[in-house]
UniProtKB/TrEMBL annotation:
PANTHER family: ANKYRIN REPEAT AND SOCS BOX PROTEIN 2 (PTHR24189:SF50), MYOTROPHIN (PTHR24189). SMART domains: ANK (SM00248). It comes from the Eukaryota. This is Uncharacterized protein. Coiled coil: none annotated. The lineage of its organism: Eukaryota, Fungi, Dikarya, Ascomycota, Pezizomycotina. Keywords: ANK repeat, Repeat. Gene3D superfamilies: Ankyrin repeat-containing domain. SUPFAM superfamilies: Ankyrin repeat.
Amino acid sequence: MSPGVLDYAQFSRACREGDMSTVESIVTPQSRTPAFLHEGLFNALGSGNVDVARYLLDSGAPITKITPSWALAAPQGQQKPLFELFLQHGWSVNTPGFYGAVLLPSVIRAGNDALLDWFLENGADPNLGKQQDNRDRFGGPETNSCEALETAAEIGTVETVQKLLNAGAKIDNGAPLYHAAGACPPGSNPHAGLITSSKEFDGARISVMELLVKNGARVNDKLISRHMTAQYPIVNAVMVGAIERVKWLLSEGTDPDMKGQFGSARDYARKVSSDETKRVLQVL
């Protein structure tokens, strides 16, 4: 194995394991390329090695469009210190990756509440999001996006949704109620057949839905999308077997006969739903 290849293998391992003395011994004696340093940074970030990451950034490792996302693979307790390093080296919480994608939605998916708070405290804009049409790989984000709020509505807590609303997230940018109504149990696919949501999983979204309606979401709003979708919250809820959400939407005045691309809630229930859902929608 040539010395260069040996250096590279040792360097990657040292960055991954947090072996600072080995990292310094390889970086210090000679000028290393940005690509070489960046590979080490990738390994340090994924393992949560803050000191190694700081050293590499100080030594000239670049922050590319995808670099910050690797910090989300680190142990949760190390994620915030890693993002603080990025801030110190010219990155911002609203810096876009490819196709305008910002990190806030990914932070919400990661479920790290402390990191979400830190992002918002440092000015993360919940109305920024990836380009809907992928028009420009190196372009900026949509400025009227609902990606962050829709993500929180689907998988986050009511507290997370409230934090985004407090930070200025605009419900009218998208359809967060639709996404909350259609939240699926992990690993399930409504297009593959009948889904049975547990009462606990089903009902857990209702507090989020109540908050969204309180802040201006409307139960009969139609999702506008270039993709084929259920379009209405109640149809989405029927598709995922969310009986408690269906009941709640009906109690809030939703119309079960509104027809989207998959038909109305009653149409869909007749084809694919449990007997209980059929009874609730009066189609049994």
